[in-house]
Amino acid sequence: MIEMRNVSKTYANGVPALHSIDVVIEKGEFVYIVGPSGAGKSTFIKMIYREERPTEGSVFIQGSDIGKLKEKQIPYLRRKIGVIFQDFKLLPKLSVFENVAFALEVIEEPRDVIRQRVMEVLDIVHLKSKARFLPDELSGGEQQRVSIARAIVNDPHVVIADEPTGNLDPETAWEIMDILEDINRRGTTILMATHNQSIVNTIKKRVIAIESGRIVRDEWRGGYGYER
Fold first, then answer.
1. For the stretch 38-77, what's the b/e string if a residue is b when 16 or more beta carbons lie within 10 angstroms of its beta carbon?
2. Distances (CA, A) of 135 to 93, 119, 130
3. Which terminus of the chain, N or C, has fewer Cβ atoms within 10 Å?
4. Measuring CA to CA, which residue among 46, 37, 34 is closest to residue 9?
5. What count of other Cβ atoms lies within 10 Å of the Cβ of residue 182?
6. Has residue 87 got a pLDDT over 90?
7. What is the mean pLDDT of the chain?
8. Contact 179, 125 (CB under 8 A)
9. Helix axes 111-124, 170-185, angle to 10 degrees
10. Contact 186, 110 (CB under 8 A)
11. Mind telling me which Gene3D superfamilies this protein's record contains (predicted)?
């Protein structure tokens, strides 16, 4: 599903972010990306949806070198990749339904298809009853669930979650993890960058640890490995 070959990244200001990354992530895996702040986790995941491009090396999604894509091809790549952010990034004047539907409207899906698919994903995240609510009428956990619904409405092959529980209380964080595990069981590959030691140590998955821009550990059913 995802492969990085000898990927390095140095920003324009000369700051190195990644060094000689080699990694393969198979279809259907659930992978935690862990490491100290500033280790390169965010750069690592931005490479996958081409928010950033490597200074050296190549990134492949389903066998295609995404570094060779033309600018007009990038939106098509991103339709296969759902992204969940720590700060939700919802459109404040649109309802829950409209926020999720927006991704389908952009690609001009028929209205009946949009309605059916949006209600399906709102059911997955347990928010069908709040389809008409505005974001500021929801709790933080509910807003994150809308963000998840928006990320999966295009039925992506990969979901990237960047600190999805970072702004949530512990109980709500576990609810979000239940939903992410459900999505993974349905066949979607999930990469989750996180500082949440309790989640990583309790819900055992593959752990890729990054320090100073290098992969220092890649373990099946690994632990968090850092004191907080």
1. ebbbbbbbbbbbbebebeebebebeeeebeebeeeeeeeb
2. 8, 17, 10
3. C
4. 46
5. 12
6. no
7. 92
8. yes
9. 120
10. no
11. P-loop containing nucleotide triphosphate hydrolases (3.40.50.300)
